């Protein structure tokens, strides 16, 4: 991406906004700040409190980093962003957007904070979107810097990353062989010919490559992202997002309703998956079968699921107990809610790491790079990372290869193949199919995102959720909505915790080791998602009324679970809902009259689009399979309706949302697709 240029006025305006979110406190604010902290159970030194009170975005020097982040968004969005900054620097523009004739950068800190909060609670979508954009940028960047003084303030040892888990006596790393990547010279030497090209290396692409290579076919795996061996993975939040995630951050929907996190490295989503390995529930399989896809209720699918479980080492052995999951379990049992241990892909080995969403440096997590791609390599497959496939080439409705840009060469080359398996993920696969000339109306439609909503609680004792396993328990209350642990490191936590003003947010972050985060995950059914045309991942998502109600019902249960577990303070991400705080002389009980009234207010408030902080880590269904081109993008075999020997093998195949972590389901389905591709009569 080319550098983004801001003129001096735009830079000053942006910095004034950043300083509103991370503001130094006035002497009066500091008195209140210290008073509230004394009432909490946090054991903080005077040095920590004083430093936190005085820190600003300016003192942290985050402006250049924020500008760098903006280079990852589309040119249209960059232009719109710069126009907003220019408007805010003029008297008429400032009046239009803030109600004050004074340019934003000339207003005092208190007034700027009030304006930011007014945008958050505005009835106008445009202002809510502005708040979301500016707050996420400032808070995420401020708190995810490895050497930031904020880490000393909040007692987070960022400098040593995940080294704490290496000190456990049962720490048993697995050293995996480094996969060889083709060099630029090898790729450009040409001509290259393979029996199969697999575009993508995640849950679908990794499995497909292994199956095809084992069948004796010559296979090339092309990955848009960079390959990192476990020894090169970064435990630091700041660098890991840039390395491991598409666009180096989250991908925001065009209408601002939800943010998607999508893996963009060799191994795809399996490289950043939270270890959770679950099979689809019976009612989902039956739902898919009712569309004519009998495979999902067949012994063949059962066998494929078992094959996946065995290869990735899915197990409930040595799933460790932490203070966070003990609180979660206690709250569920107090209320009679079901809670069970999840399966994780660790081969039954103890796994203390809380950084696997940035790649598993211990090698214990069985991602595709550590399993299926190793199998493919053993059977002769080749690998080409940092390469973008621009289109699948066809001749008389048959796939004959791909056109791609290798590394930074900016030169398009052709790689011939008699089969092409597209597994770029549900946000990118539709764009590649469209760029290749396919026009089926279902391509890009029916996007399912399994939206996540966070709930936060503060306890008197330390929870230290940033240490230990990621997700170990799940409460499945009604099948379509689940509660899980939601571990997030300081950068992500800061951007998710409700921001009302700078002082209150700093108080919350000082207590971050006392925070328990639980997430609500919903199997979306009446929401509308669409991947838009274009090469950049662009999509829209409109939350349906039924899915909104499922999220709110799950959020209510989430809050009750944490209260029943002993939480003293509860926060939602609803903009007009104040936190609930139990009085010093009150027990943490869900039958507390004030708490019951608060829950009713929470339910009534519902979900305000954009402001609710919805997140997706599971993108599905945008090229769904089916029995007719009228209702689906591909055949039940995974082959496209329009082009022979062109297959899809990723989460975009799923007919509807699966309702659980989809990794196992995608890998099982990829086994089926790859078998059909291998049996194709196509040969070079």
TrEMBL record:
Subcellular location: Membrane
Tagged with keyword S-adenosyl-L-methionine: no
Active site annotation, chain numbering: 618
Any one GO MF annotation of this record: flavin adenine dinucleotide binding
Domain Glucose-methanol-choline oxidoreductase N-terminal: 241-451
First-listed, main subcellular location of the protein, grouped into a coarse class: membrane
Record's function text: Long-chain fatty alcohol oxidase involved in the omega-oxidation pathway of lipid degradation.
Protein name stated in the entry: Long-chain-alcohol oxidase
Organism: Choanephora cucurbitarum
Gene: FAO4A
């Amino acid at each position: 991406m080319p550098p983004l240029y801001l003129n001096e006025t735009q830079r000053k305006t942006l910095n004034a906004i950043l300083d509103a979110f991370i503001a130094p406190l006035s002497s009066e604010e500091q008195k209140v700040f210290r008073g509230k902290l004394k009432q909490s159970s946090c054991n903080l030194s005077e040095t920590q409190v004083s430093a936190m009170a005085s820190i600003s975005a300016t003192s942290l020097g985050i402006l250049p980093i924020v500008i760098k982040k903006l280079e990852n968004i589309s040119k249209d969005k960059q232009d719109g962003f710069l126009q907003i900054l220019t408007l805010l620097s003029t008297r008429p523009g400032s009046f239009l957007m803030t109600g004050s004739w004074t340019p934003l950068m000339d207003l005092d800190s208190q007034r700027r904070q009030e304006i930011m909060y007014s945008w958050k609670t505005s009835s106008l979508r445009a202002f809510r979107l502005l708040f979301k954009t500016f707050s996420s940028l400032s808070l995420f960047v401020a708190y995810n810097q490895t050497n930031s003084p904020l880490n000393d303030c909040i007692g987070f040892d960022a400098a040593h990353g995940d080294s704490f888990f290496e000190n456990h006596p049962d720490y048993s790393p697995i050293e995996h062989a480094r996969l060889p990547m083709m060099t630029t010279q090898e790729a450009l030497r040409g001509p290259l010919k393979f029996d199969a090209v697999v575009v993508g290396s995640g849950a679908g692409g990794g499995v497909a490559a292994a199956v095809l290579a084992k069948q004796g076919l010559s296979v090339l795996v092309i990955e848009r992202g960079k390959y990192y061996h476990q020894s090169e993975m970064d435990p630091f939040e700041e660098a890991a997002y840039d390395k491991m995630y598409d666009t180096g951050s989250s991908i925001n929907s065009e209408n601002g309703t939800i943010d998607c996190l999508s893996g963009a490295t060799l191994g795809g989503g399996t490289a950043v998956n939270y270890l959770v390995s679950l099979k689809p529930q019976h009612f989902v399989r039956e739902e898919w079968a009712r569309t004519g896809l009998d495979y999902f209720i067949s012994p063949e699918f059962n066998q494929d699921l078992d094959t996946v479980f065995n290869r990735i080492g899915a197990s409930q052995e040595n799933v460790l107990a932490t203070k966070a999951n003990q609180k979660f379990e206690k709250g569920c049992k107090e209320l009679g809610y079901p809670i069970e241990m999840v399966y994780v892909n660790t081969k039954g080995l103890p796994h203390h790491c809380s950084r696997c969403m940035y790649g598993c440096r211990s090698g214990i997590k069985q991602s595709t790079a550590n399993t299926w791609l190793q199998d493919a390599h053993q059977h002769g497959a080749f690998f080409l990372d940092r390469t973008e496939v621009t289109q699948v080439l066809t001749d008389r409705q048959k796939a004959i290869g791909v056109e791609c840009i290798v590394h930074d060469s900016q030169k398009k080359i052709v790689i011939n193949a008699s089969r092409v398996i597209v597994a770029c993920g549900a946000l990118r696969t539709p764009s590649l199919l469209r760029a290749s000339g396919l026009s089926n109306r279902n391509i890009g439609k029916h996007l399912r995102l399994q939206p996540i909503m966070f709930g936060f609680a503060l306890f008197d004792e330390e929870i230290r959720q940033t240490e230990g396993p990621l997700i170990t328990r799940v409460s499945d209350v009604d099948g379509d909505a689940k509660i899980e642990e939601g571990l997030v490191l300081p950068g992500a936590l800061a951007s998710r915790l409700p921001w009302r003003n700078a002082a209150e947010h700093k108080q919350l972050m000082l207590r971050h080791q006392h925070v328990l985060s639980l997430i609500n995950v919903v199997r979306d059914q009446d929401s509308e998602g669409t991947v838009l045309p274009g090469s950049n991942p662009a999509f829209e998502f409109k939350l349906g009324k039924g899915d909104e109600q499922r999220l709110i019902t799950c959020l209510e249960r989430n809050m009750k679970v944490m209260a029943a577990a002993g939480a003293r303070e509860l926060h939602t991400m609803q903009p007009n809902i104040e936190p609930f705080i139990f009085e010093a002389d009150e027990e943490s009980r869900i039958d507390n009259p004030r708490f019951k009234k608060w829950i009713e207010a929470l339910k009534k408030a519902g979900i305000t689009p954009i402001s609710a902080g919805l997140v997706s880590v599971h993108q599905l269904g945008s090229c769904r399979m089916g029995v007719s081109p009228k209702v689906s993008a591909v055949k039940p075999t995974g082959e496209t309706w329009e082009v022979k020997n062109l297959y899809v093998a990723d989460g975009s195949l799923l007919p509807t949302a699966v309702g659980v972590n989809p990794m196992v389901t995608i890998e099982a389905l990829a086994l089926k697709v790859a078998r059909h591709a291998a049996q194709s009569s196509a040969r070079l």
